[in-house]
């Protein structure tokens, strides 16, 4: 029984890591590219030219209109694409408020991800010790659920800001900006599942305490 439980917990952990792997990969690539560009600018005297990309979500408004194309390296032809979630080069206009908001959401996302892993580790540790139905685990599950929902809010905010900024300077043919795809983020449903399990544990513990008092 414990082996099966540990296996399921490991699967949940892997799923959680995979769900955030894309964001982490983009962050690592952005930091690496920025460091490389800065190094070449200082050491080799090259002009610092960093493109400003936005994460945007779009939905096709006309399936027959050609929104964009990519190069097919097999035959050097151009293949039409319909972007859903994309990185689009779009210069930022106006104040630096959006940059500040993006920086804050990125920092919160990193901290929330670390906090999630810590709470999950404590939960698994208690389960392996045979301490399953306890108020400590209820607290861990509640904290895990709240931090997962916070991760979703940060992701949704990033996409919403990206869509807004891109819409100020870009109008895409055959597509329109949409924030609804942000709800496909697995952290959204995982957070509520964790809160639901926590409440089930809490109800069971309260019923057990009431039964102990009546004996």
From TrEMBL:
UniProt keyword Iron, yes or no: no
InterPro entries attached to this UniProt entry: DUF2975
Assigned keywords, A-Z: Membrane, Signal, Transmembrane, Transmembrane helix
Origin superkingdom: Bacteria
Coiled-coil stretches noted in the UniProt entry, renumbered to this chain: none
Regions that span the bilayer: 104-124, 144-164, 187-205
Signal sequence interval, chain numbering: 1-30
Keyword Cytoplasm among record annotations: no
Protein's UniProt name: DUF2975 domain-containing protein
